[in-house]
Amino acid sequence: MPTSPPLPPLRVILPVLPDGDTAAHVQLAADLAGPAGRVVLLAVVPVLHGEDLPAATVAARAARRQLRALARLVPEDTLHEETIRAAESLTRGIQLAAGEETEHCVLIVPLPAGAMADLLTRAPYAELLSTPPCDTVFSRPGSGQALRSVLVSARGGPHAELALDVAQRLGRARGASVTVMHVDVPFASAAERQQEQRLFQSLVARSADNPRLRTSSVPADSASEAVQEESLRHDLVVLGARVSGGKTAGLGDVPRAVLEHSTAAVLIVKPRTPVNPVIFKPRPLPVDKIVNDWFIEHTTHCRDYSNLAELIAEKQRRHLTVGVALIAGPEHDALPAHARVLVEELGGEPPLVDDVVVMSGPDAGLIATTAALGLRTCVIDGADADSAGRLMRASLRALQTDIVLWISADIRNVHAKLIYGLAGPLIMNGDVHYVQGFYGLPADAPDADLQNVVGEFTARPLLNLFFAELSGLIDPLTTEHAILRSTGLNLPLFSGSAAQIGLLIDVYERLGSGAISQVALEERIARPLAMLEATRRAFSATQIVAHRLGLTTRDRTSLTIKLIHQTEAHFEIDLIDAREIELLP
Question: What are the residue ranges of helices labelled H in 124-248?
Answer without folding.
Answer: 125-130, 158-174, 190-206, 223-231
